[in-house]
Amino acid sequence: MGAVVKAHKETDAERLIVMIGAEIDYEVERESLAQQRKGIWQKALLAAIVKKHCAVSNEWIAKRLVMGS
Hints:
Layout: H1 2-23, H2 30-34, H3 41-53, H4 58-64
């Protein structure tokens, strides 16, 4: 049961990243994110919104947004 809940939370977080990325006209594919600075404001904004609205770990957010660990 735990793995299913974790996957659901990560799926919700992924959807939110894609939605907010589109709203702010920011490319959220991992390849594009890897080319951006770790602390760029768009990444910080996405991280803050995901942290507030989704139950995923800081580690997951950092890896997904290529922000370091």
